[in-house]
Write a structure and sequence with these properties.
Oligomer: single chain
CATH class: Alpha Beta
Structural class: alpha/beta
Order of helices and strands: HEEEHEHHEHH
Number of domains: 1
Number of helices: 6
Helix content: 25-40%
Radius of gyration: 18 Å
CATH topology: Nucleotidyltransferase, domain 5
Length: about 180
Amino acid sequence: MRREALGLLEEQSRQGQVDLFYGDESQVSPEGYVPYGWQFEGERVCIESARGKGLNCFALISRDNRIVYATREESMTSDFIIEELERLSFRIVKPTVVVLDNARVHTAAKVRKQLESWQQRGLFLFYLPPYSPHLNLAERLWKELKARWLKPQDYLTTDTLFYAVKLALAAVGKSLFINFSDYKI
């Protein structure tokens, strides 16, 4: 049922009736991102990295690469999510739907308390079914950021990493693009 509803939202977005954003958060850690790898026998392969605190990122991305994002070194909290959605609610120009997973920071009582005022401004939250990260476009954003856009030398220091992350997120929709496939129910 939720998948079909998401399909209808996608169609409304294609027709220009609503703005549709997919949201999620991720941490970029100075310890590096290595999803998989291989090497020849006897070959030594390494990625230099620094130890330290990570950079937490929250982003909303649309299928046409429009992005709204914020970063912070502190943990993600429902207060932070509320602050970012509140900011968005004052900037929207047409009904806007934000698709989120069921993480506690997205579903906390504090967040639910804000729903009515956001809806009055035209901002609506749509929660994905449990265990369906494949339906959230923001997951692809994090994969592109960590696997393609950040380079091994970006991980040398916390400063270079945080700077590279912020540069990459700022470039989404301008010089960095993700080619999302069409939504299929």
